[in-house]
Design brief:
Blueprint (H helix, E strand, L loop, with lengths): L2 E2 L3 E6 L3 H12 L4 E4 L16 H6 L12 E4 L7 E2 L28 H4 L1 H9 L17 H15 L25 H12 L5 E2 L9 E2 L5 E2 L21 H4 L1 H6 L3 E4 L2 E8 L4 E8 L5 E11 L3 H10 L26 E5 L15 E4 L18 E6 L20 H10 L3 E8 L8 E9 L5 E6 L4 H20 L4 E4 L43 E3 L14 H21 L5
Parallel strand pairs: 1-12, 2-3, 2-12, 3-9, 4-18, 12-20
Antiparallel strand pairs: 4-5, 6-14, 7-8, 10-11, 11-12, 13-16, 13-19, 14-15, 15-16, 17-18
Helix pairs in contact: 1-12, 5-12
Length: 570
């Protein structure tokens, strides 16, 4: 029999970016907030002398243990889904801060086009431009409505950046100046300007200078050590939830984090949620935490899994197209080209997670799609994140995979290779979705989440187009040999691609095509908020974290309003 605990105002399931932001905002507003974190506590001290590529980058020290919980995967409904036994395509975080600890820190905003993609596309190109079986829809909110929340998140992080000439309007400059430029970045800027494009420094959560945020939390200046992605920052110079928002919530005295607490069910009476059930992973004891408001603030997959396991909302059915939970799962594509240089050498082993330069000339509808058989686009960038020695071994494709020539080219090209890359937008398709696996279960006896996903014709055409543009930039940069990325085939759960998974509990204006409204409040249970990239109706062509943070601030505002008037927010 589970032990029932005293009721609180808000319980959050997961303590990463979204759980941390809600805690900071709601606890400061006087609400009693409990954060349930199935992992352990972490601080910057845990990463002292942690520049261990093997331990963190290759053996995934900070990531979810897939021997206890994973997902199953298949490309289509005709295949049998099998469990992902080793992390590969994406890296799920665990412990305090979640994936917000091991991110690179690239903090782009989505564009106005993203939020009104269906309306703007049809207005300009006609309804036939969006092909059958693509579940493209507007978000139920505009960029101008989102802008104040972007501003809040960027101030919490102290984002270092410069004005993007093609982006939506900003109410304020970036809190701190852009990071340093380097010869590699200047090479990209020169080439793209020659081609008529408009480069700018990537907005970065690796700060260019010390900064104090609105919660009086100090964030330090980046040391350019090149250990960002898959690592925690021992300097406190990469903005993450543990540095920026969680301490602010703790200071109020209204916030409690319970570690090693694995939530197994959201309790739902058919009209409202009443709390959550969780298990202490060490003692095995079960608890019920009653709450006036429940916020799902876990990773994309887990948010969707909680809704499906708890029977909240109608599961998506690909046969009929009905149902909303699990619908519109999206990923990303990675067009690009690698340039090999015979003479010139670069300090590519130095860098930071968000040290880079981008162009948005091929993002969204910034270029004419009239004669193109796809919509949207993607950011094109060069980044200097730091090539660590174990996982980076660039050689031209005609190099043997072993032997004397392989060794010679490995040494030669380690500092003579530059990659121009892109993140391409991902649009929802009728056959790409999430549901519960009928066969496999996790360590607690609960069904695994099943992913049915494959690249679409839209993905393949966009990938081909953007790859050609990246190759042109590489050639203009002076590479002696440019190797474009191969064309897309079937999606594979390995190797690593990005951790930019979205959808499954999407937002919108219509309960028939969305799970939550624009405050991320569940249509079927008005005291349940589902916060995170699970709310994205499609995935944009840049990193999602800025939009995740902005939506968390909007959800916090929505919870405050709900606690005052007790009504559905529409």
């Amino acid at each position: 029999m589970p032990k029932t605990l005293p009721k609180v105002d808000v319980v959050t399931v997961g303590v990463g970016w979204t759980g941390g932001i809600l805690a900071a905002e709601l606890a400061r507003d006087g609400m009693k907030v409990v954060g349930l974190e199935r992992g352990k506590e972490r601080t910057t001290a845990d990463y002292l002398h942690g520049h261990d590529e093997l331990r963190y980058a290759l053996r995934y020290k900070l990531m979810q243990d897939v021997s206890k919980e994973t997902i199953t995967f298949r490309n289509n409904r005709g295949q049998r889904a099998l469990p992902m036994r080793q992390l590969g395509s994406f890296l799920l975080g665990e412990n305090l801060g979640g994936a917000g600890v091991h991110w690179n820190g690239q903090t782009y905003r989505f564009f106005p086009y993203d939020f009104e993609i269906k309306s703007l596309t049809e207005k300009k190109y006609g309804k036939e431009k969006i092909k059958k079986d693509y579940l493209v829809q507007d978000w139920g909110i505009t960029y101008n409505e989102m802008e104040p929340y972007y501003d809040q998140f960027e101030k919490a992080c102290g984002i270092s950046g410069e004005e993007n000439p093609m982006a939506g309007k900003r109410s304020n400059p970036y809190p701190t100046p852009p990071m340093k430029s380097t010869p590699i970045l200047e090479k990209f800027k020169k080439a793209t300007k020659q081609l008529g494009y408009q480069p700018y420094q990537i907005p970065s959560a690796n700060l260019s200078e010390p900064y104090m945020n609105q919660y009086d939390q100090q964030i330090n200046a980046c040391q350019y050590c090149a250990f960002c992605e898959r690592f925690g920052c021992e300097y406190g110079a990469k903005s993450d939830p543990v540095v920026t928002v969680i301490p602010a919530a703790k200071k109020t005295g209204n916030y409690e984090i319970r570690y090693h607490s694995n939530v197994t069910e959201v309790l739902y009476d058919g009209e409202k949620v009443t709390g959550v059930k969780y298990v202490d992973i060490y003692s095995g004891e079960e608890y019920i935490q009653p709450a006036e408001v429940v916020a799902l603030t876990s990773y994309v997959m887990n948010n969707v899994k909680f809704l499906l396991m708890s029977n909240i909302g109608e599961p998506y059915n690909p046969n009929t197209g009905r149902g909303v939970v699990g619908r519109s799962y999206c990923y990303q594509i990675l067009p690009g080209a690698t340039g090999f240089y015979d003479e010139e050498q670069f300090n590519s082993f130095m860098g930071a997670g968000a040290l880079g330069t981008s162009i948005n000339d091929f993002y969204g509808d910034n270029f004419d799609h009239s004669d193109l058989d796809f919509i949207h686009g993607g950011v094109i960038s060069i980044t200097q994140t730091g090539k660590r020695p174990i996982a980076n071994n660039p050689t031209p494709p005609d190099t043997p995979r072993w032997g004397k020539e392989f060794k010679r080219n490995s040494i030669k090209y380690y500092t003579r290779t530059l990659s121009v890359g892109s993140q391409g937008a991902s649009l929802p398709h009728r056959e790409n979705y999430l549901d519960l696996d009928p066969t496999y279960k996790d360590a607690y006896g609960l069904p695994l989440l099943r992913m049915t996903y494959n690249f679409t014709d839209q993905d393949k055409k966009l990938h081909r187009y953007i790859t050609k543009k990246t190759a042109e930039i590489s050639e203009r940069m002076g590479a002696s040999k440019t190797v474009p990325h191969p064309e897309l085939k079937d999606y594979s759960i390995v190797p690593y691609q990005t951790t930019h998974n979205t959808g499954g509990a999407i937002m919108g204006e219509d309960p028939n095509t969305s799970v939550v409204n624009s405050y991320l409040q569940h249509w079927d249970a008005d005291n349940l908020f589902v916060v995170g990239a699970s709310a994205f109706p499609h995935n944009g062509g840049v990193n999602p974290t800025d939009t995740v943070g902005a939506l968390a601030y909007r959800a916090a505002e929505g919870i405050k309003m709900y606690r005052k008037n007790g009504e559905l927010l529409v």
